[in-house]
Amino acid sequence: MFETLTPAKPDPILTIMAAFREDKRADKIDVSVGVYKDEAGGTPIVAAVREAELLLHAQQQTKTYLGPLGDVGFNDLMRGLVFGQQADKARIRTAQTPGGCGALRLLADLVAAARPDATVHIPDPTWVNHEPLLASSGLKLKSYSYFDRAGGGVRFDAMVRDLAVAKPGDVVLLHGCCHNPTGADLDMAQWKTIGTLMLDRGLFPLVDLAYQGLGFGLEEDAGPVRHLASIMPEMAVAASCSKNFAVYRDRVGAAFILASSAAAADVAGAKLATIGRGMWSMPPDHGAAAVKIVLEDEGLRANWKAELDGMRERIQMLRANLASELTRLTNSDFSFVTRQTGMFSCLPLTDGQAQRLRDERGVYLLPDGRINVAGLNAQNTAPFAKAFAETR
Ligand code: LMR
Predict the structure, then answer these.
(1) Which of 44, 79, 235, 392 is the most buried (most CB within 10 A)?
(2) Number of folded domains in the chain?
(3) Which residue range is the domain that position 261 belongs to?
(4) What digits encode the pLDDT tens for the residues 153-194?
(5) Shared domain check, 93 and 130
(6) 153-154 and 253-258 as β-strands: parallel, antiparallel, unpaired?
């Protein structure tokens, strides 16, 4: 049986995460995998989530099955968080999923079932798992221009040019906020232009919203999704709670579809349930149950939001420190780092230079130069910048 298999291509993020753990150097620096870290280098459990887990432990009476779409209460609260109160609820259906990845895969399978010949247009570059994940559903992929490596922003004109020739009916994968790996986002005026283009051309937006709250704020980061939902007849959103609730390993997410009518939403929603049943039968409950308690309790929700605001502000402070340190050491302009949002920034480095940073300086970043800014702190920002300046 297994002799017919060929070795799988390793995932660079998981490979580097494992290599960092093995590294015995005391001064090693991890800016690889996208998890938020505090000043002490830890990834703490959010206080409101911990409290919700205690409540859950005290109050939960049963762990019997809920069904393939998960907990309806969690789904409704997540719909509110993502789409806001003004959303056309009658046209939206939600499935609770194992993380944002589960949501993406569920939606990709739904697209593949509805339109098997659709091409998914993905930004260049995009999160390393997007390609294998979407291709697993049998969809064809094509890159559209996105990142301006020299200036650290978006190549907006090139992006518009590429999407303007996409085939009607095709899917456009968009990062709702905090683009991974670049941190370069569209501004609201650009989102409106892309929205109108997709509407005119009959393109289907698939928005990956994995960092809501870590860019400009919970409401602000949902702005692009909400705008698209107000103009598009159909779209899909994959939301993750991994980062904003810090429930990474608990696997909490939601897949949303917006259909052209309530009747069409019923059909697509039922299909989501069927596909989920075939993949994981029912989504894991624990993390989503805790998130639900946080979202429905006014006090816990306010505490969670305050802690999330603190994470975002700390990342912005780290961005400012890093940009000034890099600019000082290299005599080049790194102010783009402060204009980017979320955890990531793509620094101008070759694959070979990234490798040398790992081997010679114990600095772990991705081969394309992506760093997790949230992995920096007062101790390691200067050594990181020095290692970068001396290696590039
Ligand atoms: C990342 O991009 O580092 C995170 O989303 C973690 C992952 O699963 O790749």
Answers:
(1) 235
(2) 2
(3) 49-297
(4) 999 999 999 999 999 999 999 999 999 999 999 999 999 999
(5) yes
(6) unpaired
